[in-house]
Amino acid sequence: MKTTQRTSVSRTGAPTAIRNSQFAIFDLKFLLLLALLAFSGSALAAVRYVDANSATPAPPFASWATAATNIQDAVDAADIGDEVVVTNGIYAHGGRTTGPFLLTNRVVVDKPLTVRSVNGPAVTIIEGYQVPGTTNGDAAIRCVYLINGATLMGFTLTNGATRTSGSGAGNQSGGGVNCAASTGVIVSNCVITGNASASDGGGAYQGSLIRCVLTGNRTLGSSGGAANGRLTNCVLVANRAANYGGGAGGGTLVGCLLTDNAAGLGGGGANSAFLYNCTLVGNTAGAGGGSRGGTLLNCLLYFNSASARPNYDGGSLSHCCTTPLPSTGSNNLALDPQLASIGYPSATSPCRGAGNAAFAFGTDLDGEPWLNPPSIGCDEYHAGVVWGSLRVSVTAAPTTVAVGFPISFTGTVEGRATASRWEFGGGLVTSNQLWTSHAWTSPGDYPVVLRAYNDGNASPASATTLVHVVSPPVHHVAAGSASSVPPFTNWATAATIIQEAVDAATVHGAVVLVSNGVYATGGRVVYGTLTNRVAVTKPVQLRSVNGPQATVIQGAFALGTNWGDGAVRCVYLVNGASLSGFTLTSGATRTDGDTREQYGGGVWCEAADTPISNCVFAGNAAFRHGGGVCRGTLTDCVLSNNVADLGGGVVSATLERCTLRNNWADFGGGAFMSTLNACTVAGNSAFGGGGTDSSTLNNCLLTGNTASEGGGTWGSTMTNCTLAGNTATDVGGGVFHGTLANCILYFNTAATSGDNYAERNVLNYCCTTPLPTNGVGNLTNAPLFVDYPGGDLRLQAGSPGINAGANDSAAGPTDLDGKPRIFGGTVDMGAYEWSSVAPLLRITRSDPVVFLSWPNTDPDWKLVFTTNLVAVGTNTWSLIPPPYPTNLTDCVVTESVSPGHKFYRLRKP
Which of 149, 248, 385, 630: CA 20 to 30 A from 231? Predict the structure, then answer.
């Protein structure tokens, strides 16, 4: 069970105006600033007054003595260009529909005038109405509706909601405020909190929002905080969207902070928006935790989370700080931003001075000027002027953990800090990282301290939480156990069903250790109605004792078909869990429900970095994507005979040293939208992309794959790969629509056209035929494989692919065999690097045998011998055939001692 501990210590005791469960957003100082910025009225405009406690309201409400008790009365009495001035109070009465829309609004400003508070949003509240049980509905009341030319200044808008039916955004969008135009309506110095909508914009729809706070708003559609507006120097925190854009969607954001927002599908911080000098940290989504699509300039996207592409999902990024480094755009950096507090860079931040002045508009979030060049993100660092109170808190989950298992920590620093520092005990520290993790190497109780500093405090503010580190508990599973007793701490009391042992584990990082057997009973529903044979719903390590050959987790196909309501997936893994040493077979998914019920027949991983190692995925089926696996990081795994519509073997995963063989899909027989490093992809089939589709491959071998288009691959990016013996029944036997560098494409075939490659490919430094009409460094000579008919696609001595690649495109430090990638100064073409320098051969005699040993780093070297070195050119070297016995580091061959001379050497074919 997940536990969360928060500890908070204030040096000054300053009150906080707005807080949520994870992030504090603004202290009292900022809200007072909002009030002070408000508002000098025009001397020529008439003023209408509003006081909730007025004793003698009388139209036209021209003085405080005759002030209206509700805002709508004063708006109705005002003329174009007038001001409606509102004093302290909660305004939760009255209502008005507008135009053709049926939704009631607490206030409708239906003429171009200004409505402003006297003392700011902390004490002046417009409250809508949310339907009990459903929130949105026919009886809901929005807070404010503003026509083009109207201005609203200095209010808190809360508890507003919309209808769930009726045409147009006027009925279902903008629970807090709905603006009739995107830029002609001004909402400034407002707090928009706790509102909801059925469609776009839980907090606000359209309008120009200036120095506003949007927090805790939610929508059943998209854009939880704000939709389709122009936001300047705003803070968006803890807003939620069921679909896209947890913080904001569409429109333009300038100098804004977006944190702790969430979206069910994509764009936890922002979706399809233009963002300038914005900071997006700590947001979550299904994909693109920080942003999805859009254009981002001078923006900081870091420490966001998602099942896929945590910080950004597509879009155009330039002069941004994020990870991984975008493949397009310019002047981006991937360094840790070193934040002193949320939104504020430390003195050592690499974001300082890394922006482009052409994209820096107005002032930063604090109203301070941008430097030239400006910083990346919403705040400009100005040395020596960082003052104010600080308040620090720490969130850790869990606080009891096994040795070697990392705990994630989130630090919250309220106020402006110049630096922050974590202390983990034993002298271990981390500076300027509000999101961090740490693992301990020995049991004990460890105080974890976060300290924050600025120019105005002689000593730092701090918060401490205590972490209890224990030896990893082990819970045992044995199919033949005679006496299962929870918590299954030894083999004598082992569980017979894996799920029971997983349920018994309470410590994060605990081990569930499984002995030999076929595990085909038990099950758990996590989402919807799909059963998982094993649901690892907590961060524990699921491991076998003797590997996949002896340990099987078996799902089940639906009756009469592969998938359906009776199907059982093999394993479900949450973030932080791991899987090692199993065969997973006969797993399948439903044909209905969301992605968690239709993807990943063998395994579904909640996170892209969930580790899976030394596993075999065989004969699984997914109705949609990922027959074997959906997401995860797979190392030394085999995926064979799995089926799906996209990614027969795997979808949306990272694979290291894996083999994908005989999988099938409509697109991406072996893999779809995945990254493959040092993998072998053979014998897979699909309509498009027999081996892979829309993937990135480095140091990979693709052979024997078949498709109508792109027998080897379709729409993939490949570096130092070898594609040979792939077949297309139409076009592109090797590749269709690909981008390739340092690759070999040879001996592929296509029935119609493009044996090796076809249509809109970019090839540089590749060995193929015919010679590409675009690209550089390509050659057409046969690659001279060691034994193409026998399947050995390493290079012979004298191959034209040796030293013929481009070093700046070399795919990592090692090749498919794990050998150093560059030998002889220039990288080779293809998946294998050729090396002519033999390892040191050592000979030790111990009668009656002789021991010959050499490093086992390169399997191409063969041991040969001769008895005659005198007659040069006529002597014969005889092969001592492999395989050669090995120890940890060397190949070791034992030969009998015989009379006469015998000479040995290592030779490559």
Answer: 385
Chain-centroid distance, C-alpha 854: 44
Q: What's the pLDDT at 44?
A: 59
CA atoms within 13 A on the CB side of 448: 30
pTM for the full predicted model: 0.73
What is the Rg, in whole angstroms, of the alpha carbon atoms belonging to the chain? 33
| Amino acid code (one letter) for 323 | T
Residue 24 binned pLDDT confidence (cut-offs 50, 70, 90)? very low
In DSSP terms, 135 is beta-bridged to 131
| Separation between Cα atoms, residue 613 and residue 616, nearest integer Å | 9
Q: Each residue of 286-321: pLDDT tens digit?
A: 889 999 999 999 999 999 998 778 999 999 999 999
DSSP-derived letter for residue 608 is T
Q: At CA 577, angle to CA 576 and CA 583, rounded to 5?
A: 150
Q: Is 790 exposed, middle or buried (0-12, 13-18, 19+ CB in 10 A)?
A: exposed
Backbone angles phi, psi at 288, to 5 degrees: 65, 65
> Of 901 and 550, which is predicted with more confidence?
550
Query: Which two tokens mark 583?
Result: 């065969």
**If you ran DSSP here, which 8-state letter would residue 508 be given?**
B
Grouping H, G, I as helix, E, B as strand and the rest as coil, residue 721 is coil
Q: In what order do the strands lie in the sheet with 419-423?
A: 400-402, 461-470, 444-453, 419-423, 429-431
Q: What is the pLDDT of residues 516-538, one digit of tens each?
A: 999 999 999 999 999 999 999 99
- Is residue 500 within 8 Å of residue 521, measured between CB atoms? no
Cβ-based neighbours of 660, under 8 Å, separated by 6 or more: 639, 640, 649, 650, 670, 671, 676, 679, 680, 681, 682, 684, 691
Indicate the burial class of 898 (C-beta count within 10 angstroms; 0-12, 13-18, 19 or more): exposed
Cis preceding-peptide flag for 899 (omega within 30 of 0) = no
CA distance 310 to 657: 24
* Residue in this structure with the two tokens 């070193």, named with its chain if needed: 338
**Alpha carbon of 813 to those of 67, 656, 823: distances in Å?**
76, 14, 11
In this predicted structure, what is the pLDDT of residue 401? 92
Q: Residue 863's CB: how many other CB atoms inside 10 A? A: 20
Token readout for 794 is 């390493």
Strands 722-724 and 701-703: parallel
- Beta carbons of 827 and 819 less than 8 angstroms apart: no
Give me 380's structure tokens.
Answer: 């400009």
Long-range contacts of 348-357 (CB under 8 A, 24+ apart): 348/419, 348/431, 348/432, 349/375, 349/381, 349/432, 350/321, 351/300, 351/321, 351/375, 351/376, 351/377, 352/381, 354/319, 354/321, 355/277, 355/298, 355/319, 356/297, 356/298, 356/318, 356/319, 356/331
Q: Which residues contact 592 (CB under 8 A, 6 or more apart)?
A: 565, 598
Q: How far apart are alpha carbons 211 and 190 in whole angstroms?
A: 7
- What residue type is assigned to position 439 of the chain? A
Quick one: 384 exposed, middle or buried, by C-beta within 10 A (0-12, 13-18, 19+)? Answer: exposed
**In whole angstroms, what is the distance from residue 497 CA to residue 876 CA?**
61
Q: What is the pLDDT of residues 158-172, one digit of tens each?
A: 999 999 999 889 999
Distance CA 689, CA 727 (A): 10
The residues pairing with 604 across neighbouring beta strands, listed in sequence order, are 572, 630
